[in-house]
Specification:
With 524 residues, the chain is an alpha/beta fold. Helices cover 26% and strands 17% of the residues.
């Protein structure tokens, strides 16, 4: 059985930006270069370009020998770990690409290895050649005089403009796939491509209450002491450093500048852009399978079209959607530490709460980063949002998904009163996120489902922008928990004061970065 080595790379000059990929197939025994593939993708992201390079390399290997085994080497740790099954694929734009790559060869025939970028120079060169060609309005063609004139393009062909808005990786990948005519089930080798001879190179208990009810061992303002994601944390171990590719365990993201950060700040960067050719940086996202150069004669196939953190955030993902999370100011129930959700009296701000709102408004005005404001429909949040909006000169939108949890029969009660009246229900609620408060309240699991749907909608609506979300204890803690990948019990281990600020940034590759939690410096 033959064994092939596939080396693939992808880049985007801007991420998203002009993107391309390169792939090389060589004989594992002799090292001989058997096939090269490269293509300009139009506007796409690094991850899309990396995956498309992988696809092109696998398809080229399949065209050479469908019964072969393949060892893939890439400098994208993200792609290698995801395709090896060690990291989850969370981004919806990546899942179909990974699935497509997994179908080229039967299970067990392909293995993956991460290599430093300097060992992936051949594929990197091809990717840059493809991007350079695309910048000239040309299609990449195999170099060298041995190109078969019967199949090589006799003149540069105009690269079609990408469909979808700039920065849309799904649209970019779809455009690239639509440009292919390779059969996925057979070989998937693009037809009508330039083919020729290879050149031979190559988370006290906190409740989600307005006053933050006390825990079993006594009162706890805003919840049990502890930091977000306590005991968990994210890992920068897989994050790209010099000569390494971007990626973290579970696609998590580290905290910004060691946990420091300012409200609405831009994401921190590390190491700058990935590659440069002709002065343009080329990053590592996915590219589609494209023009193929092989040593043996091309394999004819039917023409079909496939269908489609402030951490060490890479500099090439574009600006994130940044949520500045403001808990509303105090109400009369807050200092009494009473449950105050969305099913109770809907109290307005107290005098102290209005003063807090004025202070946070002044702080946000000084920073000048908030571009839009969205509020919970509850009175205390809308009043807080209105005070801030007046200071910033912005309008306020209302989203029902940002409302507080409904605490059912516990509304208006203290934690001790609930313990006295509904001990079994309280115990169940503390033990399981699926348990709802007495009287038909909302479980934390149900709240999380609602908040996650709202998050996704707002990320899409405010991509690349900084938006102030004026909401409540449980929604904010839930957003932080989800961003950290922390368990539901982490909700009881975060402090969240009235009129505090927290910040979470959401990147184009589906990752999130918690930049700030429970900042009350503006109140002092």
């Amino acid at each position: 059985m033959r064994e092939f080595i596939v080396e693939a790379d992808g880049g985007s000059r801007g991420n998203p930006g002009p993107a391309g990929y390169g792939a090389v197939v060589s004989d594992a025994a002799t090292g001989e270069t058997l096939a090269e593939a490269a293509e300009y993708l139009g506007v796409a992201t690094n991850n899309v370009a990396e995956y498309r390079g992988l696809l092109a390399g696998l398809r080229a290997a399949h065209a050479l020998d469908p019964s072969a085994t393949v060892h893939v080497r890439m400098d994208s740790k993200l792609v290698v770990e995801q395709m090896s099954g060690r990291w989850k694929i969370k981004h919806p734009g990546m899942k179909p690409l990974a699935a497509e790559a997994a179908r080229v060869f039967p299970p067990g025939r392909v293995t993956y290895e991460w290599i430093p970028r300097e060992r992936n120079k051949h594929a990197d060169r091809l990717a840059n050649e493809a991007m350079d060609a695309g910048g000239r309005g040309e299609r990449w063609t195999p170099p060298g005089p041995a190109a078969d004139p019967g199949t090589a393009a006799s003149a540069p062909s105009r690269v079609p403009d990408p469909s979808g808005p700039p920065g849309d990786p799904v649209a970019g990948a779809a455009r690239a796939r639509a440009a292919l005519t390779g059969a996925r089930s057979a070989v998937g080798t693009p037809s009508g491509t330039s083919v020729g001879t290879s050149a031979g190179t190559s988370t006290g208990t906190s409740t989600g209450t307005d006053g933050a009810a006390p825990g079993p061992s006594g009162p706890a303002s805003g919840g049990g002491r502890g930091t977000a994601g306590e005991g968990r944390g994210t890992s920068d171990g897989g994050r790209r450093t010099s000569g390494e590719d971007r990626g973290t365990v579970g696609e998590g993201r580290g905290t910004s500048d060691g946990g420091r950060g300012t409200v609405g700040e831009g994401r921190s960067t590390s190491g700058g852009d990935r590659r440069a050719t002709g002065g343009a940086a080329a990053a590592d996202d996915v590219r589609a399978a494209g023009n193929l150069a092989t040593t043996p004669a091309p394999v004819p196939v039917p023409a079909t079209t496939t269908t489609p953190s402030a951490g060490w955030a890479p500099a090439d993902l574009g600006p994130p959607a940044t949520f500045v999370l403001l808990r509303h100011g105090e109400t009369p129930l807050t200092p009494q530490k009473r449950f105050s959700g969305s099913g109770g009296s809907d109290p307005a701000l107290s005098g102290a709460g209005r003063e807090q709102a004025e202070r946070v408004a002044a702080a946000l005005a000084r920073r000048g980063t908030v571009q839009a404001i969205v509020s919970s429909p509850l009175a205390r949040a809308r009043e807080t949002a209105g005070i801030v909006a007046a200071r910033l000169g912005l309008d306020v939108s209302v989203d029902d998904g940002l409302r507080e949890t409904d605490f059912g029969a516990w509304e208006g009660l203290t934690f001790g009163e609930v313990r006295e009246r509904h001990p079994e229900d309280l115990d169940a609620w503390l033990a399981s996120p699926e348990a709802a408060p007495t009287g038909g309240g909302e479980s934390f699991a149900a709240t999380a489902t609602r908040v996650a749907a709202t998050r996704d909608k707002l990320i899409a609506a405010y991509a690349g922008r900084t938006v102030l979300l004026v909401t409540h204890v449980t929604p904010i803690k839930t957003l932080v928990r989800l961003a950290l990948g922390a368990p539901p019990e982490s909700l009881f281990r975060m402090e969240l004061s009235a009129a505090s600020l927290s910040v979470v940034a959401y990147y184009a590759d589906g990752n999130a970065s918690v930049r700030l939690l429970n900042d009350t410096s503006h109140l002092r």
